[in-house]
Structures are given as structure tokens and as C-alpha cells.
Amino acid sequence: MTGDTTGPAFTAVVTDRAVGSMAPRLPDYEVQDRVTIQLPADGAYLSVLRTATAGLAARLDFTLDEIEDLRIAVDEACGMLLAQAVPGSSLDCDFTLEDDRISITVSAISQRPRPPARDTFAWTVLSALAGSADASVSTDGRVTVMLRKVRESSRSG
User: pTM for the complete prediction?
Assistant: First the structure.
């Protein structure tokens, strides 16, 4: 059987915490792991990011409600980026796991780079679900949405 076996690129990288790392640390928490997923900027692949988000949040003992909120927030952030992504480009997602929080950065190269409007219902929902949300545009045309959620049980204690 012959033929083209190339398909959409999918890459995942997991970096375990480094012992003796020279990276700066904030005093109140420690970065445990970093996970990077790169996949085609196509809505058909969003289930991969939703599943990764749920699994990584579960590792940090987030509640089921918090995990579902994060899954929806990541899906919403990706939807905002896919609407303006260059066809055939990639969607890059970086997860940083800390003791009681998760930071998620999703980015894509845009056809007409602009940050998502913050005065929309979608942004309000995104911010509420994630706990903290921000967006930026780089000089190379990459639009980035950053999410950060702190585990509820760590806020009350």
C-alpha cells in the first residue's frame, strides 16, 4: 500500500519539574509541570485540549465543577482564536501546573491580529469560568489568551 501518510501535525511535550532548576520561583507556590500541546487550528481538535485540561486539573485536585469550568473556558478561548486564525496554522496551548493553580496559555497566528473584545458576553463568561483571563497580540501576529485558575479549597484555607 502506497500513498501520502502525512496528516495534521500534533505535538505534545511534558516537562517534569526540574530538580535544582535555575528558573525563578514565586515564594508561595512551586511549578510542578509544564505541558505544551500544538495541534492544527481546527475546531475538530478542540476535544484534545478539553480532555488535556480536565486531566491536568484533576492532577491538581480541582473539584469536578472547577474542572468543567476550565474545560469550557479553554474551549471558549480557542473558539475566539480559531475565528481569526490563519488557515493551516497551529493552535498552541501551554499548561503550567503549580501547587494549587493552573495557568493555561492558548495562542494562534492570526489573519488580522486583534485581542478578543473584553466587553462581550463571551469574555465575561470566560473570565468568570477561568478565574482570571487576559489577552495580548505580539508583533508577529500571534494572538494569545491567558487563563489562570486557583483551586477553590486553597482560597478558603
Answer: 0.79
